[in-house]
């Protein structure tokens, strides 16, 4: 697949360079070039660090700013950042109140963030708590929740952690609220067409021109069912049904909805999908409190999308409503 | 190309339905289903109407909200809206101070917006002024500026018109400032891969796997040069050189930059492009006042991107800095 790049070995460095030059009012690069933090930190609060592999932009680097994360550790494409930048960001954003690390449930991230947390503790005496996102319903059965991967729902968990910190919760409080957000967040996705890594140029998976794959992962991990492409309504029916079977939502309860595009799926398709989500929830008397539609966490130029629901209570609603000001996500 | 839709004949209706259901706090649908206006209008100002064909989302409907447009007329995919919804929106947003129509320079839009302006005047006694966007450098030579098409730069012209109206300028003042924005806005794009219309499923143009096309239009209109795909830096050199030859920018002058993705181009590529734009402008002593990077005006799932520069003075800077709150564009 064609890409507007210079050198496949330097795409991440050049992307970061473009990013910090474009948004100096928001973000600065530390000595470790894969470590980015807010240009000006809010004083006296728990630090919130996000991170993971590149290729998911605007996640994760796009979400550093007021009301969102304080810093980000940037990995290679679809690969966890090593401990180095994680520790560097942790140190830079700690204000003596500890730092929460929010990341998706992938083996590499678990290992690297775990090592970084230990190093931050031992070498810098910084208390670190981890919130591991596991929103992808398709990635493991309900009785093995801890095996589930983190995908688009990480946006909500990041937002909740960040707002909890902005509201003055301590490390225990921020972690508790972010974990609770994760517990009530579910995502189901569908893949239509692959992406290709700059270094290989090869598609990450193959699907016939009339096929789709339900539950496909953010890096092309196999889903739960391959089949003929169906109408948007039928696909959404599958996704929402799977979510509601996994996490029942009663009549009268409220949710925020995220329809996420994986890269090359048009806003038109995402809006048509939302239309059906709204019909299904409305039929069940579930109220949509707020909607998010767009490319929030991509897989390079992959085709496909996902539906995320987060079940809200008063505390989580306050978080969802809280303003944000980041290079790639602003909310009033 | 695979699409998550239901019925190719109803994609626009279903998209609008999803849109108004997702963002009721921002936008409502009039009796004419292709006519959308802000849920609550700011009192006592010139109305700003935008519109054009669908398939460019988030343009145009995503830009209705505070600090941006008051209403939008929605056409079929890549086709101008007919006069009906344009007149309906014009009538709904007029507050006795007149309405400015901002749209791209395409034959269908010129005809339909022109007819709608006459009808608004004759049937409803509303004064309408038109601002026709012509930012696409590649679409006609410099001595035939009036033949140029409007592409991504329409975002800046819309923003300037909307802010001028919000600041209390009268119809003449809004029109003057928006036209001035158009006069100092230039865009150059590159196409890499086609999109397909839902109704035909056929690609809008063809390019070999190693080819690019400089100056390709937003609906697949032929560009000025086809050739082998080059590095991002070389492509950006071509785009920026063409812009600066067309509109010289002196050392010390300031610009806002928009790197726009056409649909399936990753944020990573857009950021790598920005990196080179910044280098080139910095070498010339041109200051970047503010940067916008993302999918601002797409062509369904087309691959490619564009660089837009708007040359700023104090008045235009005030407009660029003005906050906005729309479903698909928020600025603090």
From TrEMBL, chains A, B:
Q: Which PROSITE patterns does this entry report, sorted A to Z?
A: DHAK
Q: What is one GO cellular-component annotation here?
A: cytosol
Protein keywords: ATP-binding, Kinase, Nucleotide-binding, Transferase
Repressor is among the record's keywords: no
Q: Please give one Gene Ontology molecular function term for this protein.
A: ATP binding
Q: Does the keyword Signal apply?
A: no
Under Pfam families, the record lists: Dak1
- Domain DhaK stretches: 7-329
Q: Which GO terms describe its biological process?
A: glycerol catabolic process
Entry EC no(s): 2.7.1.121
The highest taxon in the source lineage is: Bacteria
Give the protein name, as stated in the record.
Dihydroxyacetone kinase subunit DhaK
Q: Which source organism does the UniProt entry give? A: Listeria rustica
């Amino acid at each position: 697949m064609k890409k507007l790049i210079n050198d496949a070995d330097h795409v991440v460095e050049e992307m970061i360079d473009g990013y910090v030059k474009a948004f100096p009012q928001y973000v600065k690069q530390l000595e470790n070039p894969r470590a980015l933090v807010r240009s000006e930190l809010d004083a006296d609060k728990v630090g919130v660090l996000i991170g993971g592999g590149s290729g998911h932009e605007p996640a994760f680097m796009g979400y550093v700013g007021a009301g969102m994360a304080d810093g980000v550790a940037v990995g290679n494409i679809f690969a966890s950042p090593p401990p180095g930048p994680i520790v560097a960001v942790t140190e830079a954003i700690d204000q003596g109140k500890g730092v929460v690390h929010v990341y998706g449930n992938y083996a590499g991230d678990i290992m690297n963030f775990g090592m970084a947390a230990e190093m931050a503790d031992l070498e810098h005496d910084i208390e670190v708590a981890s919130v591991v996102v596991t929103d992808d319903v398709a990635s493991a059965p309900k009785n093995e929740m801890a095996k589930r991967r983190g995908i688009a729902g990480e946006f909500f968990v990041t937002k909740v952690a960040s707002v909890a910190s902005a509201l003055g919760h301590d490390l225990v409080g921020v972690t508790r609220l972010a974990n609770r957000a994760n517990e009530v967040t579910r995502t189901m996705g569908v893949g239509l067409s692959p992406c290709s890594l700059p270094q290989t140029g090869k598609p990450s998976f193959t699907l016939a021109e009339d096929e789709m794959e339900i539950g496909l992962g953010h890096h092309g991990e196999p889903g739960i069912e391959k089949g003929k492409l169906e109408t948007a309504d039928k696909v959404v029916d599958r996704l929402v049904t799977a979510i509601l079977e996994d996490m029942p939502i009663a009549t009268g309860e409220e949710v925020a909805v995220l329809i996420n595009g994986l890269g090359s799926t048009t806003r038109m398709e995402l809006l048509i999908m939302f239309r059906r989500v709204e019909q299904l929830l409305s039929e069940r008397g579930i109220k949509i409190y707020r909607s998010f539609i767009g490319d929030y966490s991509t897989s390079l130029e992959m085709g496909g999308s996902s539906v995320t629901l987060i079940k809200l209570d008063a505390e989580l609603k306050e978080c969802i409503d809280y303003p944000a000001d980041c290079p790639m996500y602003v909310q009033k």
